[in-house]
Amino acid sequence: MERTLLRRGAAPRVALIAHDGRKHDLTEWATFNRGTLARCALVATGTTGAMVAEATGLPVDLLLSGPLGGDAQVGAMLVDAKLDLIVFFWDPLTTQPHDVDVKALLRLAVLYNVPIACNRASADFLISSPLFMDAAHLVHRRSERVASPTTP
């Protein structure tokens, strides 16, 4: 089967999130992958999104800061099948005041079968996959998620 690369209107929808201790890492990753991310629709939590937009020059739709509801906004987008990938560089060594939201977001990503990268290595593997820009694959995955989430 021949793969169809995504047209402009069908760009992968990517959410970017990073805890304070990992914002620099995510910004560096986004800068390195600017070419690929330029073909995506980007959304990010507050400070992270502003840092990525400034470093890359790419348009980023900004949500609230994570602890102020941004993680929950990403979760809602995920449930509504509005995301194709989440890149969430979280800090495993620091307790977060909104740990419950973080855990809920990770749970929803698994439940709705949305890929989530929690470090640079997994993020690199996901966006370099031939399936990442494959229109037929994304359309199929989106329709699958709308029909029914993965059963636990």
Can you walk me through this structure?
- The protein is an alpha/beta fold.
- It contains seven helices and five strands.
- The chain has helices spanning 23-32, 34-37, 46-56, 70-79, 99-111, 120-128, 135-147; strands at 13-18, 41-44, 60-62, 85-89, 116-117.
- Strands 3-2-1-4-5 form a five-stranded parallel beta sheet, sandwiched between helices.
- β4 (85-89), α5 (99-111) and β5 form a beta-alpha-beta unit.
- α1 (23-32) packs parallel to α3 and α4 runs parallel beside α5.
- The longest helix is centred in the last third of the chain and has 13 residues, at 99-111.
- The radius of gyration is 15 Å and the shape is globular.
Topology (SSEs and partners):
Elements lengths: L12 E6 L4 H10 L1 H4 L3 E4 L1 H11 L3 E3 L7 H10 L5 E5 L9 H13 L4 E2 L2 H9 L6 H13 L5
Helix pairs in contact: 1-3, 4-5
Secondary-structure-based class equals alpha/beta
Fraction in beta strands: 5-15%
Count the DSSP helices. Answer: 7
Distance from first to last alpha carbon:
31 Å
Can you tell me the overall shape?
globular
Question: How do you describe this structure in short?
Answer:
The protein contains 7 helices and 5 strands.
Which features would summarize this protein structure in a list?
152 residues, alpha/beta, 5-stranded parallel beta sheet, 5 strands, globular, disordered N terminus
